[in-house]
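Summary for the steering committee. The consortium agreed at its last meeting that each partner would contribute one worked example illustrating the joint modelling workflow. Our contribution is presented below. We chose a case with several input lines so that the handling of multiple components could be demonstrated. No manual editing was applied between input and output; the record is shown as generated.
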Amino acid sequence: MKILTQHINEPGIETFDVYRKHGGYTAVEKAIKSMTPDEVVEEVKKSGVRGRGGAGFPMGMKWSFLAKPEGVPRYLVCNADESEPGTFKDHYLMKSIPHLLIEGMIVSSYALGANKSFIYVRGELLYVIAILEKAIAEAKAKGFLGKNILGSGYDLELVVQPGGGAYICGEETALLESLEGKRGNPRNKPPFPAVKGLYQCPTVVNNVESISNTPWIINNGGEAYAALGVGRSTGTKLISASGHIRKPGVYEIVLGVPVEEFIYSDEYCGGIRDGHYLKALVAGGSSVPILPANLITTTANNEPRLMTYESLSDGGFATGTMLGSGGFIVFDETACIVKNTLNFAHFYRHESCGQCSPCREGTGWMEKILYRIENGRGTQADIDLLVDVSRKIEGNTICPLGDAAAWPVASAIRHFRHEFEWHISHPEEATRPGAVYPTEAVLN
Amino acid sequence: MEAIETPLLKVTIDGIEISVPPGTTIMNAARKIAEADPEQHDKVPPAMCYYEPLKASGGKCRACLVKVAAGSEKDPRPMPKLVPSCITQVQDGMIVENTTNPAVLETRKGIVEFLLLNHPLDCPICDQAGECYLQDFSYEHGVVDTRTQEERRTFEKHDLGPYIQLHMTRCILCYRCVYTADQITNKRVHGVLNRGDHAEISTYIEKAIDNDFSGNVIDVCPVGALTDKTYRFKNRVWFTKPVDAHRDCEKCSGKVTLWYRGEEVIRVTGRKNMWGEVKEFICNTCRFEKKETRDWTIEGPTRIERSSVISANKYGKNLIAKPDFALKLAKSQYKKIDDSRPYITDDQTIRQLSIENNKLANERSLASD
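What follows is the complete predicted structure of the assembly.
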């Protein structure tokens, strides 16, 4: 069952005509001609689709929080600033089938009563911006955008905004600041964007994948969408699979596929590369806790782990992780967890906006400590220090970047403490090029 | 116009109840408690970035995080995370734990550590020493020992025009000076460049800040990052005598504090209230050019609150109030005294030893270059 990627390999799907031939823009017609905005919101609510950007907040509920004061414009902003290490689904979707996002934007804007909507695209993806702008021009020429769409009296202008070139601009309030032309610093919440967002007006910020789901939901009904998946994890999800697997790539799965099947079946990742075995998994982009081999395919209670929001976070942070944005990074035994953690820590240090002190100073401190450990100059006390620093960052920052920086470090130490200890107690072996913790020796 | 009666909201901070109008933040409610009873000063969360006269300031340093044990009368659930008290508005029936919550104190220790992580700790040569909010904050909420051994980030000193020097190495990125320039001057030419721990306050291509009210950034700076070039290295603040004075000024209120050394005015600043905040900003003419007593009408000595940073015996009082802290301090100092060596008392030997020590230190620093 595919919703987003069903027609993605059709030649010419990036053009209006081919997209239209495959049932494109029927949702716009249906919504604008036969439904009220509230009915559209209701369908999305019924579908149970959850935010695909990482937090997994129910999209319909987010829409229903939107304040609707008289005489104040409302905005829909699409968050296409995909920068999470390990996640590359939105990029793939936008460059391959741009009209899907645009159709979704029209339907969603109509539902929310927005007459001007924005797509904030990661600044590095310049060529994608060109693709989107071409698609918007096509849609406008065919009367699906602009003034008086399909003769209904509803106007919508769609603006593509190149991002500021920072990971932090993917945080929704930082994105809004950046969109306003300011420095991309996250805002203090409350007020939430649903009350005071872009230019202090009520705003909804949704991920590319979330918005791209709306045309299917309108065409087939929210209940049909909710019938897919398991429990509160409804519908399909794009997973960006990378790492030491045979077939890296973007896969659309119906939520509820067992993790074991996703890694080993030929339909998806195709298993670990030859001669190697699974060591660790980052299931939802670099921010989520890393899992060791014994907790990947089964939960701590020995139940099979599924690709759902609930199952992946089963066991909390002690033995679970999160689905996040679906950045599925698989490590085999040749991966050094310390080096990987250092790599992530470096990323978060580089991307911290520097506004609030725990994140600004803490991310840098963690990187420096990890750098010492990786280079054979650590002490055993450094490991506890890292845990303590990560704890003091977590939950004390303005935006979730602090948490995102703290979790990978804390979880790597929780599950792979022996590797950190080995790096410290065997500095000469550990600093040799390509050195990895000798799992084999320990296993035998 | 008729005054509209709004019902007051009841909030309890560390067991003390106060009624405040809607829209008041936890911080300002706590300040009200302390203003009514100075003994309750410790109920007020520390503020490093929040500055009441500046709109939108606050929420950044996280020094004022508090625990909300009950959200409101209607919804008495506790808030899951610690909240910044400077921007969180009170609800009716809210119960706040400031110093009574161990998690809050633990977090504050962490915040002190983070703020000092890249701070040069050059208080002995810093003009702000003695009226520095970071000194205060770390003294009251920090720990004695340091756990960092990493190199600190440093920056070059910059002259921002003829009056102000920026010593970015000391900066804690509170953004107060940015808001000041935004809100009280008509053109902001400085801001924050770069990100994360390499972010810095800067004027673009070191353009000088040239504005009649630019000097106020010195007053709002909680640390010694922005200093008055007409006062730099003139004197330690605790040796100077503050006096309230005013003059007729066409640009500003003309209400200032003069800082005397003997008969000489060595510094002019805005008047700070008990929270260290300047309510009436002053112009550069008053601040930098009127340094003669005859320029001013003297009102009388500045009243220094006991809670103020420059108040005499402030730290001593804290030491007594916090026996734990004193004991720790004593312990950490004690380790450094080498008791095995005989005490040397005659002048000649001490002189000789100090010359040798200096020589050794010189050699060491040359070797490390």
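The domain at 127-231 of chain B is CATH 3.30.70.20 (Alpha-Beta Plaits). Residues 71 and 94 of chain B are 5 Å apart (CA to CA).
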